[in-house]
Amino acid sequence: MNTNSHYLNLKEQYLFKNISDRADAYMAAHPEQRLLRMGVGDVTRPLPLPVCDAMHRAVEELAHMDTFRGYGPEEGYEWLRQTIIDNDYAPRGIDLTTDEVFISEGAGSDLGNLSELFSRDNHVAILDPTYPAYTDASIMAGRDITYLPCHAENGFVPELPKRKADIIYLCLPNNPTGTVLNHTQLKQWVDYARQNHSIIIFDAAYEAFISQPDIPHSIYEIEGAKEVAVEVKSFSKSAGFTAVRCGYTVVPKETGLQAMWLRRQTTKYNGTSYIAQRAAMATYTPEGRAGIRLNLDFYMTTAHLIKSGLQSMGYEVYGGVNAPYIWCRAPQGWDSWTFFDHLLNECQVLCTPGVGFGASGEGYVRFSAFSKREDCEMALQRIKNL
Ligand SMILES: *Cc1c(COP(=O)(O)O)cnc(C)c1O
C-alpha cells in the first residue's frame, strides 16, 4: 500500500486546532480568567421551534410501523428539492429542475467531493484569503493552485486569474472578509469561465446574510452561469444547522456534470437523514422563516456592534454587512498571530488570525458575529482599555 503523498503537502495543523490549542494553553495557565470567544465560525443560537417540531414529528414517524421509512433517494426527497427551487430560485427568475438539485449533509463534504469530477491536471484558482477547505481539497487531489490576492488595496475584489484556471472556487459573501460582488463584477467571472471552459464552484453558504441591494443571491442570476457554475449551499449558517447537517448542491445539466454527480452520489452517498431533510423543509414555512430571520437579525446586530465598536477605536474594519464576519486590520506593523496573541493575553479575547485563511490574510484578524452578545460587549470594552 502507498498512501496519497499529496497529503504531505498539507499544512500540519488545521487552523482552528492551532487556535484552540493556544486558547487551552492560555486557560491552563490562567484558570481564573474568562475567555471571550470572538473566533467562532459556528452558530450559537438555538434552532427555531418549528424546525425542532418538524424533527420531532419525523422521529415519531420512524417510531411506528405504518410510517417508518428506510433509505430515501440519494439525491434527497423530491418535496425538499422542489421547495428549494420554488423558494430559492424561481422567485429570482432561475429555472431549475429537481434533478439538478442534490440534497447533501452540508456544504463541507460536497465542496471537497466535487473535486473528484475533474481530472488531476486541472489548474485551480482560489481566493486568498478564503475558507480553507478548497485549498486543502485541491492539495489532497494534487492540483496546482493559483491564489488570487484580496486585500484592502483592491477592495478585497479578486482579479481574474492570469494563468488559465480550470476550476475556480468563489466564496461569496466571503468568509472571512465579508466581501460580496455585484452583478457586474460576478458577470466577469461567469464570462471568464465561459471563455476558458472553466467551472466555478460557488460557495454561497452565507447567502442569507446579504443585506445590500444589487448583490446576486445566486450565481445563476448571471446570464450563462448555468453552463459554468455549480452552486453549493448550506442550512448550517443560515438556519443554525451545523449540528443537524443539511445543505444542497445545484448542478445544472448545462455544465455537463449533472449525470456524473448523480452517478457519484448514488454510488458513494446514501442520502441525507430523513430527519434533517424534514428540518430543512420546515425552514421554508412562514413560522420557520420568521424564527430564522430573528436569529439572522440577532447575528447581524452583533456584527454591527463589533464593527462600529472597533471602528470607533480607530481600527480599520471590513465586512459585517453581508456576512457575519468582521475583518480587522492589525495595528501597523503587526502580523496576524501577534495581534491574535496580544488580544488573547491582554484582553482574553479569542479571534481568528487572518493568515490562517491564506497568505493575503496576513496582518488581519477575523471577529465572528456568532459570538455571544455579552462576550462581544465585554471584549470591545477590554480592547478599548488596551
Ligand atoms: C461553514 C462553512 C461551510 C460549511 O458548511 P456545512 O454545510 O456545515 O458543511 C462551507 N463554506 C463556508 C464558506 C463556510 O463558512
Topology:
Layout: H1 15-29, E1 36-37, H2 49-62, H3 78-89, E2 101-104, H4 107-113, E3 123-128, H5 133-140, E4 144-149, E5 167-171, H6 183-196, E6 199-203, H7 225-228, E7 229-234, H8 236-239, E8 247-250, H9 258-268, H10 274-282, H11 286-312, E9 317-319, E10 325-329, H12 336-347, E11 349-350, E12 352-353, E13 364-368, H13 373-384
Parallel strand pairs: 1-11, 3-4, 3-5, 5-6, 6-7
Antiparallel strand pairs: 2-8, 7-8, 9-10, 10-13, 12-13
Name the descriptors:
single chain, 386 residues, alpha/beta, Aspartate Aminotransferase, domain 1, Aspartate Aminotransferase, domain 2, seven-stranded mixed β-sheet, four-stranded antiparallel β-sheet, globular, binds pyridoxal-5'-phosphate
Task: Explain how this protein is built.
- With 386 residues, the protein is of the alpha/beta class.
- The protein folds into two domains: 11-40 and 287-385, Aspartate Aminotransferase, domain 1 (Alpha-Beta Complex), CATH 3.90.1150.10; 49-285, Type I PLP-dependent aspartate aminotransferase-like (Major domain) (Aspartate Aminotransferase, domain 2, 3-Layer(aba) Sandwich).
- It is built from 13 helices and 13 strands.
- The strands form three sheets. A seven-stranded mixed beta sheet has the order 2-8-7-6-5-3-4, sandwiched between helices. The chain has a four-stranded antiparallel beta sheet with strand order 9-10-13-12.
- Helix 6 links the parallel strand 5 and strand 6.
- Helix 2 (49-62) packs antiparallel against helix 10, helix 4 runs parallel beside helix 5 (133-140) and helix 11 packs parallel to helix 13.
- The radius of gyration is 21 Å and the shape is globular.
- The structure holds pyridoxal-5'-phosphate.
- The site of pyridoxal-5'-phosphate has 14 residues, from helix 4 and helix 8.
- Pyridoxal-5'-phosphate binds at residues 41, 106-108, 131, 171, 175, 203, 205, 234, 236-237, 242, 247.
